[in-house]
Amino acid sequence: MNDFRPDNRPRQSPPRRFLSLALTIGVHIGLLAFLLVGINWQSAPSGSLEVGLVGAPSASAPAPPPPPEPPKPEPKIEEPPKPEPPKEQPKPEIATKKSEPKKTEPKKPPKPEKKPEPKPKPKPEPKPKPKPPEAPLKPIDLLDKKLDQAIERHAEAKKVSDILGDGQQGQNRQAGAGGGSPGELDAYRNAIASKVRRNLATPPGISGNPSAVFEIEQVLGSRGGEVVNVKLKQSSGNKALDEAIERAIRKSDPLPPPDNPALFRRRLEVTFRPLEE
Amino acid sequence: MNPAANLSFIELVMQASLLVKVVMGLLASLSVISWYWIFRKWFQINSAQSKANRFERDFWSGGDLDLMYQAAAGGRFRSGGMERIFEAGYREFTKLRGKSHDNAATIDGSRRAMRATYQREVDDLDAHLAFLASVGSVSPYIGLFGTVWGIMNAFRGLSNVGSATLAHVAPGIAEALIATAIGLFAAIPAVVAYNRFAHDIDRLGIRFESFIEEFSNILQRNLR
Domain map of chain B by residue range? Predict the structure, then answer.
């Protein structure tokens, strides 16, 4: 009697099902693409600290100090005015090096000047020249020390380290400013630069002003910044020089850690200009 | 747990421990299924709404009830919920009118038939919404579980290292947090869709109910 069919619901039309499936897949592919491409995980700029590694600071470094120079060294310099000119050139650095251990000079300034110095050409010259002044070594050393102190004071006063790349200085400070004062950051940068420079043996026959950019990946371990990876980002054009720099970076393996741990960067960008004048 | 590891998304997922990977896989499949149902329900509710609009327009523009019933019964698989309610009510009405002389019983019978169809229709629209609600409420907890587990492992690994630095735990924590991120990715659309669909279905149900009342009045008038 009752022919009423209760279930008069419609069937779901299949096309909708496939459309839904396709859209679902589309949504997830889009999401995945966003995660993989859209988000720059571990953004490089915030993690990198640029360290300018400039070869010989001698030529450019003594240039600024003259102002502070006269007042102090003047009284003692009067006798040995002759050794002065050679001292402006890279050679006497050797003398400084020799006397360093005895005199316990301020460590920072002489270190950077030791290694890269001899390269430009002084190799033949240092032997003949420094020997004559061997006798009056004392005054020269004294003068050197004074001069170095003056350089240091001057550099600190200006908050500009002449060891570093000049042009990028301002940008670097902003880019690397994660925490800590600019002074601390400069000190950290100097420490890294000087350590790498100490281990660097510049190959002969390099002319012009080549500059290479390296990216160092480091991890803060117990010994300091342990070098994990060194990548050449921009070649200097000279393969031997690139290799020498890379060797130097690897040799200085535990990179000095910063005094302020907040300044530590996983990625360091080192710009190297060995013949900077 | 190598601190030197690259912190890209794929690396983070690949380095996760097995349990965290299982959690991530579970959440990813939950996300896929819930998105599938979001689209299915979206199409279904949209089509139900447009069919109800069309039927209401046709119905209130005034036409012969018999003709309308023929059309509804003929196009059953194309008709919308409101049309099927009308069809069930009118069918019951015509049957009872010939047999019973009790007007109130006739109207009651057709109302019961319409109510039954109405409940079936709403149930059909409601299907699988509970799944979306569950995904929305549970998947953040699943993700959180994966994260807690991953962080526990990261800190346990830390105890083996002499000097503890942030660099040692950071990758472990980052990979663990991805589980929470995936959980939220699955949960947020599910919650939004659930709320939206529940609201739409409520409104459709109210329209169906008011149609039942109004149609009962029309049937009652037809009896006299």
Answer: 9-223
Give start and end residues of each alpha helix (H) in chain A. 14-33, 44-47, 74-77, 84-88, 93-103, 110-114, 137-158, 169-176, 182-198, 239-251
Nearest to B36 among A6, A12, A20 (CB): A20
Q: Mutating which of A24, A29, A227 best tests the B interface, going by the most B Cβ atoms within 10 A?
A: A24
Q: Which of B9, B100, B119, B169 to mutate to test the interface with A (most CBs of A within 10 A)?
A: B9
Q: What is the ipTM of this complex?
A: 0.72
Q: Which long-range contacts (CB under 8 A, 24 or more apart) does B65-72 make?
A: B65/B90, B65/B218, B65/B222, B69/B94
Q: Do A8 and B4 touch (CB under 8 A)?
A: no
Whether B32 sits inside 8 A of A28 (CB atoms) is yes
Instruction: Chain B: give the shortest CA distance to residue A130, in Å.
Output: 48
pLDDT tens for chain A, 277 residues: list them.
444 455 555 554 546 788 889 999 999 999 888 878 766 655 444 445 666 666 544 333 334 444 444 444 444 444 444 444 444 444 444 444 444 444 444 444 444 444 444 444 444 444 444 444 444 445 556 666 666 666 566 555 444 434 444 434 434 444 444 445 667 777 777 787 788 778 877 777 777 777 778 888 787 777 777 787 788 877 877 788 888 888 888 888 788 877 777 777 777 777 777 655 4
